Predict the 3D structure of the following.
Amino acid sequence: MSWFAALAQGITLSEGRVIPCQAYLEACENYQKQSWRNRCRIFSSQGVENLLVPVVHEGGTHSLPITRIRVDYSTPWVVRTQRAITSAYRSSAFFEYYMDPFFAILDSHPETLWELNLTLIRFFLDKMGLPVSLVPTEKFVLPGSGVCGRDYREAIHPKRPNAILAELQLEKPYFQVFSGKYGFQSDLSVMDLLFNEGPDSILFLKKQ
């Protein structure tokens, strides 16, 4: 959720108006293994659970542009993922409201990881009411250049903790189905926020 929280800070809520912002997506990098590009974390009855989107491993996968990485549908991971998400969130307040359009994206079998991620990002932005214009980069931007604003490419990574939610004072709890059993779990997939808070997700991210 850190990435969406950072995006939300560029949006202005003023006197009933929502002023949009623009965000750049790195479209020219090489594929990064063991990153959030093909995985996320949800909160299930077993605690925090990792979900993985398998990709086709070709010769030198790590050296291929992110836009050329193909999703591997040779195993029934879509069905398993939908079952895991349903088990985790069927008791949440808004899961049934968003389930069909969300699962339809997975059922459509986008060919590339880039297409799948972009479609999912736009889905969550739309359902949370975050008016963000996504702009794919046309050339690789060097880290620290500042050309596209603050750079979160390396800051948000499964292997490294980040302080984004703490800096934004967004480590506060919201309702979670299994928090009574395990306590509140922070910085999960943004689907955790959407399924539990629904249209109020934007108010949470904007500390309203």
Observations:
- Helices lie at 2-8, 77-89, 95-107, 113-128, 164-167, 179-182, 190-197, 201-205.
- The mean pLDDT is 90.
